């Protein structure tokens, strides 16, 4: 069966520090991969999606970037965190042509 | 572009009472519709989905939703809620087979004893 792993579960980082959140999927190949951010009271905002290795689409301009170095690995990064980057980050995957997304357990990022 | 509007940010309800969480969407093309549930500090879990066919969709935990194309709505209902249903619920749409899923702002359901 397919599983999605996201880590770390919680993270506290100072302003200006770098960020790397990792997400991996097991049990499937060539998935569509997504990064969402959930800010308090604001629902889920799609940040990035990827349909293949090295293919990244950004939905909103921001301080973050994403990379997909391997088929089932999706990384969210920042060179210098801002206070406004705090939130709950969710990774998700969907099969090619699939109809629903499957979510990881999320990472709660607090920038101090 | 597609968008989703969840009309209520919070819905308090007493245990064993019925509940309806409202969702409206806009799209110029046919969409797939979803309801997800999120428990505190966890990821999202799919409750139910509408792809095609019958407009009344049944999901897990006793929830159901009805797709109304003329009103562009996909409201979620449960005839009798439990304390354990307290969570945040998200309505979502996608086009073309889950390529990109757009979520509403969420509705926080609070079930009181």
Q: Would you kindly provide a written description of the structure presented here, covering whatever features stand out?
A:
The complex is a heterodimer of chains A (112) and B (113). In chain A, strand 5 and strand 6 form a beta hairpin. In chain A, the strands form 2 sheets. In chain A, strands 2, 4, 5, 6, 9, 10 and 11 form a 7-stranded mixed sheet that branches. In chain A, strands 1-3-8-7 form a 4-stranded antiparallel sheet, with no helix packed on it. Chain A has no helices and 11 strands. Chain A has strands at residues 3-7, 10-13, 19-26, 32-38, 44-52, 55-58, 65-70, 73-78, 87-94, 102-103, 107-111. In chain A, 39% of the residues are buried. Chain A is globular, with a radius of gyration of 13 Å. Helices cover 0% and strands 57% of the residues of chain A. By secondary structure, chain A is mainly beta. With 113 residues, chain B is an all-beta fold. Chain B is built from no helices and 12 strands. Chain B has strands spanning 3-6, 10-14, 19-21, 23-26, 32-38, 44-50, 56-58, 64-68, 73-78, 87-94, 101-103, 107-112. In chain B, the strands form 3 sheets. In chain B, strands 2, 5, 6, 10, 11 and 12 form a 6-stranded mixed sheet that branches. A 4-stranded antiparallel sheet of chain B has the order 3-9-8-7, with no helix packed on it. In chain B, strands 1-4 form a two-stranded antiparallel ribbon. Chain B starts with a strand and ends with a strand. At the A-B interface, strand 4, strand 5, strand 9 and strand 10 of A face strand 5, strand 6 and strand 11 of B.
């Amino acid at each position: 069966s397919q599983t999605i792993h996201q880590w770390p579960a919680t993270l506290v980082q100072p302003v200006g520090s770098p960020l790397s959140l990792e997400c991996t999927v097991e049990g499937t190949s060539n998935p569509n991969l997504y990064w969402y951010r959930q800010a308090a009271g604001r629902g889920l905002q799609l940040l990035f999606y990827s349909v293949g290795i090295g293919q990244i689409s950004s939905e909103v301009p921001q301080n973050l970037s994403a990379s997909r170095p391997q088929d089932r690995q999706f990384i969210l990064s920042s060179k210098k965190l801002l206070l406004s980057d705090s939130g709950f980050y969710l990774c998700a995957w969907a099969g090619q042509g699939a109809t629903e997304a499957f979510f990881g357990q999320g990472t709660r990022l607090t920038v101090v | 572009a597609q968008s989703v509007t969840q009309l209520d940010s919070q819905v308090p309800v007493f245990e064993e009472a019925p509940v309806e969480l409202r969702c409206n969407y806009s799209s110029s093309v046919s969409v797939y519709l979803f309801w997800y549930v999120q428990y505190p500090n966890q990821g999202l879990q799919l409750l139910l989905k509408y792809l095609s066919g019958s407009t009344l969709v049944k999901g897990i935990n006793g929830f159901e939703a009805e797709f109304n194309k003329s009103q562009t709505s996909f409201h979620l209902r449960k005839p009798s809620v439990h304390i354990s249903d307290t969570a945040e619920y998200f309505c979502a749409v996608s086009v073309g087979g889950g390529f990109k899923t757009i979520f509403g702002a969420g509705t926080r359901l609070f079930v009181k004893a």
